[in-house]
Amino acid sequence: MKKKLPKFFDRIKVMHNKDYAASFRQQPSQKYLYDYTVNNLCDHLGYVRKNFHNAAFIGYNPETFVQNLPPNVTLENLMVCDYSIKNLEISLDLVEKYKKEKGLNFGVHPICLEEEIWPMKPESLDLVVSSLSLHWTNDVSVALVRILDSLVPDGALIGTIFGEETVQELRIAFTLAENERSGGVSQHASPMFSNVDWGNMFTRCQYNLPTIYSDKIQLNFNNPFELMQFIQEIGENNSLLENRKEVIRDVVFAAAAIYQNLFKHPKNENQVFSTFEFISFLGWKYHESQQKPKKRGSAEFSLKDLQKEIEDSLEPSAAKITSTIGAIEVSDSDSEDAKKKTDNEGDKKENK
N or C: the chain end with fewer CB closer than 10 Å? Predict the structure, then answer.
């Protein structure tokens, strides 16, 4: 009998956080954050040499996805999925609005779901897009496997989650403040995946040709309290099952003071900055037409031999060895010219 994995997140609290955040979706700062991720996903999809027709979108701003559909995504059906009913209703209204504006003709199907209980039929979708959603799932591997089952052969899952360096400055400030005030540390931010951890998870779930990469942006705020409010307004505040129920007031103010001193904006001392890391991923369901790695030992050339041939083919004048001393760059040919010049000057002095 398999043991149940421990749960980290209070999913009811996650839902309440998302419901609260739904009313702030059209504010410029929140919209920028989610549009940034969805626009990147659309750009990456545009480079894929495959057409997609039946897709599911999980998370925030599916209307941005509809607005920026790449040419190879000619939708017939779009499943708009979310865990928050309020957020889902807003997404549905916005998708229908932009669909009419662009004159698009495809079916839109709203689905309120838990990612671990993926309700799609096997091999019913050729594309699943996840925007900053899967990092709140208690058992990510179950969600990934069930999404994989719902894809047709050569179907793709593409998405983004928050990485481990997200709001790292706030974590540091709270750790220092709580250690000083309480003599110990509790977790104030949810655990996040690293690039390597997510890549390993993706591979274990048997996604073919996985692509994992990360990028970071810095957002500026007038003070740390504005950052904390922003985190609430995007629905990303702490939802851990086991954490301190109440944060001591002194700890909050101490953390804000530490933050203000350590993480000032380099060009504006009246502002602070915060890092947001995005881990983006793309994986495929196996199909015979996909590229396959060569068998081990099947290479016809040795890289060492190739390197030796390149080195042998270079002329001595072309193979300059450059050394850098401080900020001054000196090559062998330049040093020889300098030496000759010095010797000539010495000879002239002796002649005099």
Answer: N
